[in-house]
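Query structure, 213 tokens:
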């Protein structure tokens, strides 16, 4: 809650409801986190608000860990679980994956498989409320994704090089799509005659090889 949305603060009762644990246990845990410098505590009227401390030396690591495990990634992973058999690979890219997001950032998602766009958006319908961010999926059939890779499509080739948080499949699955693309390209290229390069050499070069000046 704190490190997935570090720009927000949460009051104690709100945190108790979200974590589904007792108020006393929450207060004790928060006291330890404040003492360790992981949380900031501020008072607004009769309420104490808590927020992730961006000045903590481990803020970046905790934020990355939260997003990739118990945060956005887990929510999206659970949302896609019902259609996972139709998905070859799915991953978050953009600012959420690179750690450069802000309070207004959306979650950019790529899904490659046999599943349709409508099925993906239906599966993700509840994710927006849970993570408090808009989720923008881009859905590709496997054949289309490979075709765009083969054609050097700017968007597809750029996301291949960008940071990712995998939700279904992993880097090996994504690389297999690229490897098949390269294998197809190799099949499409005409076989080269080993002697063709020699035949194309200029006449003067061939004469020099024979000792003729």
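Result returned for the query:
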């Amino acid at each position: 809650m704190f490190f997935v949305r570090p720009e927000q603060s949460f009051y104690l009762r709100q945190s108790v409801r979200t974590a589904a644990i007792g108020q006393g246990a929450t207060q004790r845990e928060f006291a330890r986190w404040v003492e360790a410098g992981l949380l900031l505590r501020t008072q607004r009227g009769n309420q104490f608000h808590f927020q992730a401390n961006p000045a903590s030396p481990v803020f970046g690591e905790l934020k990355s860990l939260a997003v990739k495990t118990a945060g956005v990634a887990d929510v999206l992973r659970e949302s896609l679980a019902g259609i996972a058999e139709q998905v070859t690979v799915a991953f978050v890219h953009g600012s959420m994956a690179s750690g450069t997001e802000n309070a207004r950032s959306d979650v950019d998602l790529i899904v490659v498989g046999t599943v349709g766009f409508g099925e993906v958006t239906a599966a993700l319908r509840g994710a927006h409320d849970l993570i408090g961010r808009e989720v923008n999926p881009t859905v590709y059939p496997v054949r289309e994704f490979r075709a765009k890779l083969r054609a050097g499509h700017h968007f597809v080739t750029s996301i291949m090089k960008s940071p990712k948080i995998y939700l279904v499949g992993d880097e090996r699955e994504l690389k297999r799509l690229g490897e098949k693309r390269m294998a197809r390209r190799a099949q499409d290229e005409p076989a080269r005659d080993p002697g063709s390069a020699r035949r194309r050499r200029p006449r003067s070069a061939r004469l020099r090889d024979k000792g003729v000046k």
